[in-house]
Amino acid sequence: MRRMADCLNSYGVATEVIDGGAGISTDQGALSQEQLADIVEECEELVDIDSLTEYEPLTVDELREIYAWQLTVADCLEEQGYKISEPTSVETFIDAYPSGEAWFPYNDIPPERLTQAEWDNLNEICPQYPANY
């Protein structure tokens, strides 16, 4: 469930893992039901939701890879004209990741600021996760 929560958070949907990893809780905020459904569907495809029946924590090396990718994403988003907050240290990222509070550059872009087509285009230009994630 952690990967699903991280994906949703990266799309700007406030999400936390609950019940020791057995589920997630989301706050749709200003998103319409249709926008939220589209994001959930996208994340389900990206993280292969059917494979999440058992939770295995990511290794420190995997978290370092995710952090490095997020630095690349931040650069890409800034090249597209978005203001992205300063990244945390890799150590802070690793410590915050299990709680869902880790730094992700897409969290700095409110989804309501973009149309769905603009959001999809931005995600094609600056993918939130590597293809093998």
Task: Give a structural overview.
The chain is mainly alpha-helical. The protein has one domain. The protein contains five helices and two strands. It has a two-stranded antiparallel sheet. Strand 1 and strand 2 (23-27) form a beta hairpin. Helix 1 crosses helix 2. The radius of gyration is 14 Å and the shape is globular. The protein starts with a helix and ends in an 8-residue tail after the last helix. The model has no long low-confidence stretch (mean pLDDT 85).
Major sheet strand order: 1-2
Proportion of residues in β-strands: 5-15%
Order of helices and strands: HEEHHHH
Instruction: List the domain count as a whole number.
Output: 1
Poorly predicted residue ranges: none
Mean pLDDT across all residues, rounded?
A: 85
DSSP strand count: 2
Shape: globular
Q: Structural class, judged by helices and strands?
A: mainly alpha
Total count of helical runs of at least 4 residues: 5
The gyration radius over C-alpha positions equals 14 Å
Major sheet characteristics? 2 strands, antiparallel
Please bin the fraction of helical residues.
Answer: 40-55%
